[in-house]
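Work package 3, deliverable 3.1, input record:
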Amino acid sequence: MLSSISKYLLFIFITCIIFNCKKPFNPVPLTARTNYLVVDGFINTGLNGVTTINLSRARSLSDSTYDVLPEGNASVDIESSSGDSYPLQQVSSLAYSSNPLNLDINQKYRVHVTTSNGEQYLSDFVTVKQSPPIDSVTWQQDNGVNIYVNTHDATNNTRYYRWDYTETWEHNAFYEISWGVKDHIIFSVTYVTYATYTYHCWSDSNSTSIILGTSAALSQDVISKQLVRVIPNNNEKIGIRYSILVRQYALTPEAYQYWGIIQKNTQGIGTLFDVQPSQLHGNIASVSDLSEPVIGFISAGSVQEKRIFIDHLDLANWSPPPSQLYCPIKNIPQNSNFLYYDYPDTTYVPYYFTSGGGLNITKSYCLDCRVQGGTNLKPPFWQ
Amino acid sequence: MRTFKNGFILLGIPLFFSLGVIAQDSARISGDFKNTPFEQFVKEVEAQSAYHFYFDKAEIDSIGITGLFSKQSLSTVLEEVFRNTSLKFTIDHYRVFIAGNYQIKTLPANFFDDKATADDSVSNIIKPAETDIRNQKAISSIENKLIVIGVKQNKAGGKATIAGYVRDIKSGEPIAGVSVYIITPSIIATTDQYGYYSLTVPAGRYEINISSIGMKDTKRQVLVYSDDKLDIEMQDFIATLKTVVVTSERRSNVKGLQMGLDKLNTKLIKQIPVVFGETDILKVVLTLPGVTSVGEASTGFNVRGGSTDQNLILFNDATIYNPSHLFGFFSAFNPDVVKGIELYKSAIPVKYGGRLSSVLDVSVRDGNVKNWTGSAGIGPLTGKFSIEGPIQKDKTSIIFGTRTTYSNWLLRSIPNTAYSNSQAGFSDYTLHISHIVNAKNTLYLTGYYSKDQFNLNNDTTYKYSSSNLSLKWKHNFNNKFNNVLTAVANHYDYSISSSQNPVNAYKLGFNIDQFDFRSDFNYIPDNKHNISFGISSIFYKLHPGFFDPVGSKSLVAPDVVPAEQGLESAIYLGDEYTISPKFSINAGLRYSMFNYLGPHDVYEYVPGIPRTVSTIKDTIAYGSGKLIKTYQAPEIRVALRYALSDNNSLKLSFNTMQQYIHMLSNTTAISPTDIWKLSDPNIKPQQGQQLSFGYYQNFNSNTIETSVEVYYKEMEHFLDYKSGASLVLNKHIETEVINTRGRAYGIEFLIKKLSGKLNGWLSYTYSRTMLKADDPLAGETINNGNYYPANFDKPHNINFIGNYRFSHRLSISANFVYSTGRPVTVPLAVFTIGGVPSLYYSQRNEYRIPDYMRADLSVTLEGNHKVKQKIHNSWSAGVYNLTARQNAYSVYYTQENGKIKGYQLSIFGTIIPFVTYNFKF
């Protein structure tokens, strides 16, 4: 009877299955008060360390913009466990900075904030955790460019790390400029006078994700090839020359856990086994209302940093897409005073004098890289 | 064909019955019938007239007669009665023959002269199948034969116990849940899971009736002198559509002491449409009232507000830690070797313990002891095969089943590289051998192996496997007293490995070894008491985690969470006492004890302040076999039943439970990374108590069952987790957990019809599960220590399962599921910290995902039912998620181009058609 099985072994299946469907999920209308105070900063106990604390307010998810909502006019102090106080001055709409300080690393420190409406907030006293130096920042081209940080602590004491970075890249205007205009007078610009030479620019941006690493599971306190940044393939940031400054912070396990929750809550990608989002419990509280949510976790310690450069020429098959700028060139007759320029459309600037007489002009954004963002002042670290 | 006089009447009084008899007229029939059972009708007609009826009880079982007849001829009456049935009748003088689908051609000349050979009349009938008739003949003749039980004794009176096994005549498979009863005096016994029954009666002559779901009723004429055995064979009920369910079983809902129990046999399970057409036992369990799950692709289930680790899942007494395959898309049990399931939700029998919420008992079929047979099935994702037969005819049988998947094509077809670069595979194997040593001894050996392996995006490989081996020896000391000795070895392991970065290449895993030994006694001194007692002991050895480097370049430091040992022992005694036909009680006490054993290092924390690594006061090292901590507690199991009438009853039960092993999971569904942990000096056993009350009512001659059950349940020392708790490789889990208190309550309504062309059930459940985390030793509370809904708190649940049989071969099934969306924690605010926008989340489980709703349809076409045919095949085709509703499995928020966006993820967000092919040989 088993013999006749084989002829029955035919099957049909239908493949019109779309497996994984996702669609927007708009939660219930949120009416709760959500403008929680956000205290973002790090007590810098390094040599001549400047501590900067950013104060802002959380926004409702339904807000039209998530731009940072600064909390100005507050008074912010660092307080030590021995009772010393170091005031911070407001340096921008949301940033408060100390003078360069040399804080005693054997003390504990906390942050004391008094907002403009008189509400007082205190962080816990935190112990100072000095970061070991960064051993190296390395990179590897693999589809995109992956940038890694390597570090170690021979005393095996650090174990928990956070990094952030500032990247800077060089970019050029569409056309190289020869002439500038000041008070309607055309003048010649050269590479030497940076202030007017607007062909080379440098732009920068800060990290946009929380980067954490731990060696807690390793026998030695070694961080090997911790990925800090992935530059997508053919990205124009490495069109000429690129630099990244990686900063390293040592964390306590609690601070690591806090940043880990922020990382998870922010970067969680939908998978079948997503961990439940966790409530944030920072180490800052309102003095008058302990139940008021306050966002932030204050740590104290030194900051270590390391910079590397990557040249476009270092990369294989890296071709940033061509610029999409529209650069029309117009030829206008020269004035009698050929250095006098008064073309009515001020978005046009002189490009070059044509050999047959007349002046070719074009859109200013084609000649001035600063219009695309960035500065034409070469950063001091640029090599 | 046989005569039938009485038999039905005394067991149950028909519901809607009234009769107005007019004058006695030998040829004319009068009466007012309202859904009167046919047998009752016959009795009345026979009383009124000289007519005598000959029929097969099974064929007329479900016919109810309604009509007002006044001095009408019998043929008119019968024409009316049988108008909508396939039954034919023949009136020969005063003899009336009712013959199902057969057409009586001629009657032999000597037919009425010799009643004893009445069975020979079948030779004059157009036969449906030779073997069927043969069995029927054998059964019919044994039904009329007087069987002498025991030996004649001189002293008059006294009681005797009849006991034995009830088996299927074709396969020899024991049948559980069969009612074996005598009408006067009213004595009922039910066969246990081994098909064994025991019936104590005063010496004398009786007719014993035997009836069971899906089997043809049978009876035995016995003359009882003293204790003796009586094995009974029953015939499967394949040919007749008109009746399926037998009255006494239908009534067990009302009559039985058990409450909060759902029994399903595989036949029924197979009718229910499921995704990809793969019969799935656990998916059917999810349609029962009081059972929910967190999401569609999770076979972990929650019973009456319990968490997924609070269910004891037994596969022929072996403990199954992960009942699912392939991320939970399939359950890990091969339906072809499963006899059925029993899910205990409230009155948990005293012999079970160790989990708080429920016991899911999956039983494996005994193999066919008469012939070699098998079955196979092919679906879009899985294939299965089983074979069974006698090693030694009527003594030793074997059944083997296996399943595997070829689902990789599906993963590859997903337009997402993370999935298309993934591979998934599973297989499971079940082997069961039963051996009848002699009348008093039976041995059972069950082996189970299941493994899963999946590789996500060519990087991380997940593996898990279960292996179980159980050996059971059932010994009958005498008809009243038997014992089952059980020894089980269970093993479960899982691992995750990755070797993409040679420096960090690792393998992470854990495993559980569990050895069970138990001895269960059953003593039935008379028909009023059914006493069970026994002892059990479980030895656990857990490796809660190891983390090993892979390759020579790996810098991963090997890390091992030390093994844990524990011994869970219990002793129990229970009695099911029938005080009167109306009132019965089942009371039991179970005393359980747990010993946490060395070698182990135990952390001692500074008392009274939150437990963190920095509050560890001392580490105490215990040597091998040293007793570290003992927990013990009595567990009470009480159930009461009071029958208001034959058709309705009230039941009350109270239970307390203890649980000494816990699953640690910070995710919302069972995932393969969940870790198990024993209670230790710092993690207390979970405790639960449940009070439930139910009202049961049957309608329409017991064809429709209804019930309402309410329950209230409290849980102590339930484990919830601190924010961002890290559970993997954690040597001090007690610093990550919050000792949580839970309470659950609900009401469950059920309407069930398991007979007739249309069958199925409809249930509605309202239930809540609330947790409260205010453990001062945790250092943090959840939602400020207020009650918050558990992850699986889904207040409203509606389940409908319906099956309609058009003919023997064609049936259509539908189900409908609705439930409230489960609670989620959603982000409320966005803020920027460290240059990164991030989210501030709501209170835990403050909001809910959209409600879940799904309808499925399937059609099953079976090949012809010729009994002689060697291969019986069936096709089933259907659609899962008929309305293509995109039910949210989970919701998540992610950062896209600087904006925080919320998404809901549907797993089966479209219509999924399927075709499967099954055959038996």
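The longest helix of chain B spans residues 130-144.
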